[in-house]
């Protein structure tokens, strides 16, 4: 988004230095990509490493805790940080104190709710062993309320500082969790790792905050309420989508099914975290230009193309290589997860299309479409995915999740067309699929030519071929966009190449 000549507009909001907002945002995308992609991969690696040392039943206990305790924290995500970043009040210290107070109050309230929910969770699932780890896990909730100072760096687009502080949680959690898992701590390794990581990050963030947080509200609370209630609806729907399959899977198929669903869900969690690299970078900049529809449209299209460059190949590679992942990495005990892993790979591929649509509506203060789309897709989920899980087990659930993912894309498409006149979702999606078609074809051809028993060397060779062909095709198809992004980075470092496009 070009902002040359408009430095005064952003001077009090974002310290740009000698860069334009376009350059600053492009640089921030790369900075965030380095942090979030690496840390998200660390989280995915943790899931698979721990799975190698835990039984499916142990992982099922963790899945119940995620569904019943951790996902309750979704309801505490009221968009307070998003509203704080969007606002442009003259007294920024008061604005932060108000947001900090609201966020801490909400997190403390949900801590009480989560403590009360733990015994109920044990009764619902018939698993009394979840009580002790569940109560320990609730200790992470108050710490989450102390992370509000991160919003200050976020609003100022000071991403290096923000991401450095945020890295404390996943890095420490990885070290503690993996160490305890290797030591035989079972699902307790995941619980203790989560609490240790969250509290460490909270204490360091609070100690280094640019503003010393104070508990005060002042005027403007009503604005937070009107902004947040649709996000509460969306989070309730999110809770249903996470909770229902774990509950039904455990009842109808067994505890191991809950573990399979949880492990497969970590794939979607990984892709969503990487997607947030771009979304979170753009959000403060989008808030600054939220009334300029043409700039919003350019930003939306280009940011989607950047994410689709990696998102579609990642999802399709999981579809192709999930059996090899189980055979050569996870072990035979995870054989029932193959079909669901493949389905989630396909879902993660097409769910990237228009993935950050909600950030543009949040930046405009219009959060009702977010509630509408989440409600629509959740109704589809309850009508299709859950009955198929109950009747057909994990294979049926895989089909149902595909239908659910498609419904979410349909919903976001409806509102994107209303916001951006002339937007064509089908063309947008087709452009993302074209570069990966040759890679899929190369792998399928290699498998047709295989003879004898398939081994690990063949699997690695096929994976290498898939990556190489995808990279080459992507560079050819998106060379203008990639050159533009590199050009912004070079200009931010002192060069002056002309932007492309």
The overall average pLDDT, rounded, is 81
Return the string of H and E elements: HHHHHHHHHHHHHHHHHHHHHH
Share in β-strands: under 5%
| Terminal Cα span | 12 Å
Report what the structure shows.
With 501 residues, this protein is mainly α. The chain has helices spanning 7-11, 21-53, 56-68, 80-86, 92-125, 131-137, 140-144, 150-155, 159-166, 168-182, 188-207, 221-252, 255-288, 293-330, 338-350, 357-363, 368-392, 394-419, 425-433, 437-449, 456-477, 479-492. The protein has one domain. Helix content is 77%, strand content 0%. The longest helix is centred in the middle third of the chain and has 38 residues, at 293-330. The N and C termini lie close together (12 Å). The model is unreliable at 1-9 and 492-501 (pLDDT under 50).
How would you sum up this structure in a few lines?
The protein is mainly alpha-helical and 501 residues long. It has 22 helices and no strands.
Write the SSE topology:
Blueprint: H1 7-11, H2 21-53, H3 56-68, H4 80-86, H5 92-125, H6 131-137, H7 140-144, H8 150-155, H9 159-166, H10 168-182, H11 188-207, H12 221-252, H13 255-288, H14 293-330, H15 338-350, H16 357-363, H17 368-392, H18 394-419, H19 425-433, H20 437-449, H21 456-477, H22 479-492
Helix pairs in contact: 2-9, 2-10, 2-13, 2-22, 3-12, 3-13, 4-5, 6-11, 10-11, 12-13, 12-17, 13-14, 13-15, 13-16, 14-15, 14-19, 14-21, 15-18, 17-18, 20-21
């Amino acid at each position: 988004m070009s902002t040359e000549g408009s430095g005064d507009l952003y001077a009090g909001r974002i310290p740009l230095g000698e860069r334009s907002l376009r350059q600053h945002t492009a640089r921030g995308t790369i900075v965030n990509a380095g942090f979030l992609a690496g840390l998200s991969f660390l989280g995915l690696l943790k899931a698979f490493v721990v799975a190698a040392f835990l039984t499916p039943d142990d992982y099922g206990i963790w899945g119940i805790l995620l569904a019943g305790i951790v996902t309750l924290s979704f309801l505490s995500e009221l968009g307070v940080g998003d509203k704080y970043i969007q606002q442009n009040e003259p007294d920024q210290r008061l604005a932060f104190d108000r947001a900090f107070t609201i966020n801490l109050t909400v997190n403390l309230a949900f801590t009480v709710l989560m403590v009360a929910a733990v015994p109920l969770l044990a009764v619902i699932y018939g698993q009394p062993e979840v009580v002790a780890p569940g109560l320990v896990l609730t200790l992470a909730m108050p710490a989450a309320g102390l992370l509000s100072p991160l919003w200050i760096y976020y609003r100022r687009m000071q991403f290096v500082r923000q991401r450095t502080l945020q890295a404390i949680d996943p890095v420490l959690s990885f070290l503690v969790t993996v160490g305890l898992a290797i030591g035989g701590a079972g699902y307790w390794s995941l619980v203790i790792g989560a609490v240790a990581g969250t509290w460490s990050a909270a204490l360091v963030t609070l100690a280094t905050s640019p503003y010393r947080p104070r508990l005060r509200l002042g005027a403007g609370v009503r604005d937070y309420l009107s902004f947040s209630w649709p996000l509460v609806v969306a989070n309730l729907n999110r809770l249903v989508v996470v909770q229902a399959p774990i509950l039904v899977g455990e009842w109808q198929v067994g505890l191991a099914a809950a573990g399979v669903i949880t492990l497969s869900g970590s794939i979607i969690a990984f892709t969503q975290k990487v997607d947030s690299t771009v979304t979170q970078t753009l959000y403060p900049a989008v808030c600054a230009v939220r009334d300029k529809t043409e700039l919003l449209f350019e930003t939306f299209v280009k940011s989607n193309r950047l994410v689709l460059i990696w998102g579609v190949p990642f999802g399709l590679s999981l579809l192709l290589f999930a059996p090899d992942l189980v055979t050569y990495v996870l072990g035979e005990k995870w054989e029932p997860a193959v079909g669901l892993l493949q389905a989630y790979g396909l879902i993660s591929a097409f769910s990237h299309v228009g993935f950050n649509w909600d950030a543009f509506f949040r930046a405009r203060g219009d959060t009702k479409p977010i509630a509408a789309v989440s409600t629509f897709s959740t109704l589809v989920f309850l009508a299709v995915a859950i009955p198929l899980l109950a009747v057909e087990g994990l294979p049926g659930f895989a089909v149902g999740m595909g239908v659910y993912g498609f419904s979410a894309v349909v919903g976001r498409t409806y509102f994107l067309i209303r916001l951006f006149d002339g937007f064509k979702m089908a063309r947008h999606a087709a452009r993302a699929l074209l570069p990966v078609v040759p890679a899929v074809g190369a792998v399928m051809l290699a498998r047709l030519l295989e003879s004898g028993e398939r081994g690990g060397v063949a699997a690695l060779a096929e994976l290498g071929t898939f990556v190489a062909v995808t990279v080459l095709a992507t560079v050819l198809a998106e060379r203008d966009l990639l050159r533009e992004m590199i050009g912004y980075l070079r200009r931010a470092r002192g060069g002056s190449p002309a932007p492309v496009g």
